[in-house]
């Protein structure tokens, strides 16, 4: 699985740094290092409602530190 | 014209408790000449400030108009107000004039003698003594070589630490040993000057007993650098802008997410991103084969502008951008330290999502950054050309 977190200007201002760190620790906690490749993305074109992440071909917008666990469970844990 | 460039930088420390500095530096660039005048007015505070301002301004203007040193000295003698307490009108001066980056003319009156580093080592140059209006003036003409560094100081530098940590102050020989030990041809004139004044400030225990100034001029090889910031207003101009950008000599920096995408597409290469932050407030830089540096746009550039403004003042953030590996620090190193000639390619496309969102990153912010950064780079003495698309 390929996860890309947008680090474009507007997602950065909405907290990409925190999302990347949450993603790193989520992957580590669930021992998904072999299954998931985490990278950054330059602008996923959803600047109005960041932070955007792209999981394989699906773009998920509006990710925040608050809803992170939910997003991680739905899109990452249940899919790997 | 050769491919050399005279980079100039200076830093002054004020006498403890004074708001104004009694040392003054004037820099004039005219045609193929660089004229730098350092004047140190008698005393400190307002009086010294007026004396040194008049002296540096009069001399730099007259020298730039090709008038003789004799005329300059006669003019200041007649123009300077006489100090009531001391009964004299007095300001020392050092004139450094660089002609077409091939020859330097150094004229000195009562300041510590200019230090010349050639290949990083102290180089003794000949001086002719002449008396003008009762003043002993030292004159020199020196053929320039690449990486020559000229350092002029006010006497606050050589008196640093007197009676505090040193018996005789930080003498000229000590300063020579210091600059030789710290010599690195990749440093800029500003960094050399600030390393000297920082050391003086330490020796004075942060309470300078005299106005202290160091001015450095470094003869460098010209280095062009090109920076692309934002996609063009009309998408049909993508290829035109990129073709022109990549046709330029020197390093290439690409700033902005969308800008990086069109660049990657143009070059037929992938954008390789990183998730490691060197500075949590700056999005991590990326890379594209064929581009020297790829960064996010407006946040990174706003930080570069902060660093540029600080560099022109006391350069206190230098330690930060010198070492960090975030995009803004890397751009700062390339533009401030390395480049002498900078081409900015600015695209005027508006990111609709940015305009609509509640975040404060509209196009007007971007053009303001470009405008202010251009001014800062010019104040650093660089040749800047801005191209809009």
Question: What is the global morphology of chain A?
Answer: globular
How far do the termini of chain A sit from each other?
A: 7 Å
Number of domains of chain B: 2
Biggest sheet details of chain B:
6 strands, antiparallel
Describe the structure.
- The complex is a heterodimer of chains A (80) and B (389).
- By secondary structure, chain A is α+β, with helices and mostly antiparallel strands.
- Chain A contains 3 helices and 4 strands.
- Chain A has a single domain (2-77), classed as Glutaredoxin, CATH 3.40.30.
- Chain A has helices at 9-13, 16-29, 68-77; strands at residues 2-6, 37-41, 53-55, 58-60.
- Chain A has a 4-stranded mixed β-sheet with strand order 2-1-3-4, covered by helices on one side.
- In chain A, a hairpin with a 2-residue loop joins strand 3 (53-55) and strand 4.
- Chain B is an alpha+beta fold and 389 residues long.
- Chain B has 2 domains: 4-221, PPM-type phosphatase domain (Phosphatase 2c, domain 1), CATH 3.60.40.10; 224-388, no CATH class.
- In chain B, 35% of the residues lie in helices and 28% in strands.
- In chain B, strand 4 and strand 5 (103-109) form a beta hairpin.
- In chain B, 47% of the residues are buried.
- The model of chain B has no long low-confidence stretch (mean pLDDT 92).
- The interface between A and B is medium-sized, with 23 and 25 residues.
Highlighted features:
A: 80 residues; Glutaredoxin; 3 helices; globular; B: 389 residues; Phosphatase 2c, domain 1; six-stranded antiparallel sheet; five-stranded antiparallel sheet; 18 strands; elongated
Give a brief outline of the structure:
The complex is a heterodimer of chains A (80) and B (389). By secondary structure, chain A is of the alpha+beta class. Chain A is 36% helix and 20% strand.
Describe the secondary structure blueprint for this structure.
The complex is a heterodimer of chains A (80) and B (389).
Chain A: E1 2-6, H1 9-13, H2 16-29, E2 37-41, E3 53-55, E4 58-60, H3 68-77
Parallel strand pairs in A: 1-2
Antiparallel strand pairs in A: 1-3, 3-4
Chain B: E1 4-13, E2 23-30, E3 33-41, H1 45-64, H2 69-79, E4 91-99, E5 103-109, E6 115-118, E7 121-122, E8 128-132, E9 135-143, E10 149-153, H3 155-158, H4 172-181, H5 189-203, E11 212-221, E12 224-229, H6 238-247, E13 251-255, H7 257-267, E14 271-272, E15 287-288, E16 293-295, H8 298-312, H9 318-323, H10 327-338, E17 341-346, H11 352-356, H12 363-379, E18 383-388
Parallel strand pairs in B: 12-13, 12-17, 13-16, 17-18
Antiparallel strand pairs in B: 1-11, 2-3, 3-4, 4-5, 5-9, 6-7, 6-10, 8-9, 10-11, 14-15
Helix pairs in contact in B: 1-2, 8-10, 8-12
